[in-house]
Specification:
The protein is α/β, with parallel strands linked by helices. The protein has 18 helices and 18 strands. The longest helix is centred in the N-terminal third of the chain and has 22 residues. The two termini are 48 Å apart.
């Protein structure tokens, strides 16, 4: 089925045309690992996951997906210099080496991020690469030299800046985001990695070393410029190295259009002579109870905070998909509850069919060829909406219309088998259901318990026995016992 996507670059919905036959190469701006990711961040990652899963399942494409890890920028440096208990407990103590502290902080939060997205159904094995910025310093330095040699960057006080005015003589700056250049002053520089959307200024590619910060040596035309990369340059260098230019799709939140993505376009065009990607796909913001999420408003949630309120991360995923990715999603607790009820309704339909099947048929249900007209029409109705710019609300509406109009027990045997096969395939996209018999599924150890058990094992390995005991108590309070074994642990329901 042909996939259509809204392209932020052209401002049109376009038929996806892969560059490399049946392979889609896709880059997503990943997390800055200085703290726990909040649910607003998670919407961007869930959108990217939805896209790559839809491309596989509905479009039948092979996917090469890269998501970067920003582990060097203003925020990671700032927080690696703080006495933050979470990462210091993991590390043991803060050292006198700024680089060691930076890598310890970011390694800690990178692992927490990977754990969190796993709970949301984003599978680590689906990534072609999750590159860390600090592993691509040489590639960034090479790109910066290319830009300098093209006359579109300059050195000032040990830093290197992209010359926006010079670039504008050769190409357009402002392809994704309309910029008012009326008050633009050539030569105005900005050093911070993130800045106000209205500020069109020369942006930093390489930041001069500051006392107490980690740094790398960088030689340009005989000058040594010890320092570290700016935020924007990392994505351009990693895209070029890992995917080649141009690649097919670049994803991210609308807040990244300017300056981050606009600067990516300019850097790649200036340095490599080509724009990075053919399709720019951006998801809208997430609000909480109709308001912008912020710590000061008290409506700022991480996934672990929602779990403490006994909210299943998969219900968060399913609820977010109830809104189209290009519309604002209003997170509410009532909305999560409604999503859970809707998800369980489909799960009950799965049980109604699966409970009557022999195990061999159930195991192979995903590979069944759908034969009946009724379920073929359902699949077409659902997939066509997903193919139309990932319209998940309409796709789910078509699924529930089918369930409302067709009592599962009254479907023919072949229709029941086809329905279960279709839901199994759809679950490759939504990751919302368990395909199996009710008794077997509900006796599975919940992911939350497995996560706590793995955290406890990690704490024991780090000789943090107080934390290990605390986690054991949490597992017991949730109705399970854990026993240590030579291979790790065993868990049983109390």
């Amino acid at each position: 089925m042909q996939i259509q996507l809204y392209n932020s670059l052209t401002k049109n919905t376009e038929i996806l045309k892969p560059i490399h036959n049946n392979e889609i190469r896709m880059y997503s701006c990943g997390p800055t690992v200085y703290n726990y990711a909040h649910i607003g961040n998670m919407r961007a990652f869930l959108f990217a996951d939805l896209l790559q899963r839809t491309l596989k399942t509905v479009g039948n494409y092979d996917i090469k997906w890269v998501m970067n890890i920003t582990n060097i920028d203003d925020k990671t440096i700032r927080d690696s210099q703080k006495n933050s208990p979470a990462w210091l407990n993991e590390m043991g103590k803060q050292t006198d080496d700024p680089m060691e502290n930076l890598l310890a902080l970011t390694k800690f939060y990178e692992q927490k991020f990977i754990n969190d997205i796993g709970k949301l159904g984003i599978n680590n094995i689906h990534f072609f690469a999750m590159p860390k910025a600090t592993d691509y310093i040489v590639e960034m330095q090479d790109l910066i030299k290319r830009i300098i040699n093209k006359g579109v960057a300059y050195i000032s006080e040990g830093s290197v800046y992209f010359n926006v005015n010079e670039y504008r003589q050769k190409d357009i700056y402002g392809k994704l985001f309309k910029i008012d250049f009326e008050n633009f002053q050539a030569g105005t520089r900005i050093d911070s990695d993130q800045y106000e959307r209205e500020q069109a200024s020369d942006f930093v590619l390489w930041k001069a070393r500051k006392e107490g910060e980690p740094f790398w040596d960088f030689e340009v035309d005989g000058q040594n410029l010890p320092g570290r990369p700016g935020w924007h340059i990392e994505c351009s260098a990693m895209e070029y190295k890992l995917l080649g230019l141009p690649f097919d799709i670049h994803t991210g939140g609308v807040d990244l259009k300017f300056p981050h993505h606009e600067d990516e376009i300019a850097q790649s065009k200036a340095g490599y002579g080509i724009e990075p990607t053919n399709y720019w796909c951006h998801n809208e913001f997430l609000e909480v109870e109709g308001e912008k999420m912020s710590k000061s408003a008290g409506n700022f949630f991480t996934l672990r905070e929602l779990e403490e309120k006994n909210i299943d991360p998969i219900d968060v995923r399913f609820s977010i998909f109830s809104a189209h990715y290009r519309t604002k999603y209003n997170f509410t607790f009532n909305g999560i509850d409604a999503a859970k009820k809707a998800r369980i309704r489909v799960q009950d339909c799965i049980y109604a069919v699966a409970n009557e099947l022999e195990e061999e048929i159930l195991i192979n249900i995903h590979n069944r060829q759908i034969q009946t007209e009724k379920v073929k029409n359902l699949q077409n109705d659902v997939y066509s909406e997903l193919a139309n710019d990932l319209h998940t609300p309409k796709a789910l509406a078509n699924l529930f219309t089918f369930i409302n109009n067709n009592k599962i027990s009254e479907l023919s045997k072949d229709e029941q088998l086809d329905f279960l096969c279709f839901i199994s395939k759809l679950n490759d996209i939504f990751v919302a259901w368990k395909i199996g018999k009710k008794e077997e599924v509900e006796n599975l150890i919940p992911q939350k318990i497995l996560d706590l058990a793995n955290q406890r094992l990690e704490a024991k390995q780090n000789k943090n026995f107080a934390e290990a005991d605390k986690l054991r108590n949490e597992i017991t309070a949730l109705g399970y016992t854990i026993k240590d074994t030579k291979d790790g642990f065993e868990i049983e329901k109390i």
